[in-house]
Write a structure and sequence with these properties.
The structure is a single chain. The protein is of the alpha+beta class. It has eleven helices and four strands, in the order ααααββαααααββαα. Helix 5 packs antiparallel against helix 11 (438-472) and helix 10 (365-432) packs antiparallel against helix 11. Its main location: membrane.
Amino acid sequence: MFNKNHHKIWGFALLSLAYAGCKIPSIVQKTANNNTPNTYTNHTSDTTNVAKIKWKDYFKDQYLTNLIDTALQNNQELNITLQEIEIARNEVRTRKGELLPSVGLKAGAGLEKVGRYTSQGAGDASTEIKPGKEMPEPLPDYLVGLYANWEVDIWHKLRNSKKSAYTKYLSSVEGKNFVVTSLVAEVANSYYELLALDNQLDMVRKNIELQNNALAVVKLQKEAARVTELAVRKFEAEVLSSKSLEYEILQSITETENKINFLLGRYPQHIARNKSSFETGLANNLSTGIPSQLLANRPDIKQAELDLIAAKLDVKVAKAQFYPSFGISAALGFQAFNPSYLVKMPESMLYSIAGDVAAPLINRNAIKATYFTANAKQIQAVYQYERSILNGYMEVANQLASIENLGKSYDLKAQQVQALTQSIEISNDLFKSTRADYLEVLMTQRDALEAKLELIETKKQQFNAMVKVYQALGGGWTN
């Protein structure tokens, strides 16, 4: 009769646990849309993609590649990201360990004195330590044994947790690749900015020389009473303005050099560079491939995809919390009140094995909250994944348009510079023959300088656009 009732109680408990696991709240899930347009606007469907080119082959300037190589070794932000990868790798090891039994070794010694009028103290004391001697008080206790605990992963809660941790590890690797692409692009853009400033400095100094020559002519004409002191002062002011601009450019050069040094993880020093590479530029045969290749080439999109996979696994892990958990515990060792008895077999030997089933019945709000939070994060990850794809496409589209428009703008500015350069010679000749006012000479020189500086700035923007489209397509993280 006892066994029958005993089985009924266990059956009722198991049914209750199973019922508790079945009442799982419903959630609204979202499926990611990773469809992209077939081609970029006004571009072919050729799958040749510049993103596959290694950055050492994309950038031809040896000085620049040396700087990038140093940055990839010393940059603090990149090294911080590498530690994030190590943290994620250790998390995988932790989750993998949870799948295996937990085994430990225990050794201890103690002393116990119980009350005589207790259930333990009033028990049988017939065991002899030595023949004819009673049980001692207090009683020593010595123990050496192995203990093990293991959760049986029936619902794949631990497996999914390990898969999620591994996916997050892969995501951290893609995050590192994204930092690499950003670092490569930032160093390259700063390098071309430095070359542009060098060219602008040369242009300003040439202009100062030209203005000084014009000032000398004006002084001679004043002595000949062909112009007044006002003209001399105007030309002197223009020279001083150009010299002031020279120092502004020198300050910008210093700041840009220091910016590059910061990216390289070192204190300020001179940046070696090839000024002539500003004229040669990058290759114009830019192959963009097709938009769907962004999903495989851009690290940030791959990272968002992996984060989405991990978020879905986290939902499964949270869902498994509603189901009963099955655990097994065991122990094997030796225990005795005298150390010499620990080796006596089988009297001092102890062992145990037990299994348990547990599931929440009441107050499951915390588990529900975890489940709903995991699902909300999964939906967030879907939107982030879709957003990263859209952002990647927009970045490529913007840079392609920029390259095209900057090319047209550069051609027009080059014609403008040519016309104004010729105007300087004409205005000087006319001024010497008193057929032009000195203000016309000043305005022509000023307009020509501004146009030349703008031309250099446009050239720099062209370099930046070529770097940015390479980055936007997913290039720069392989060397």
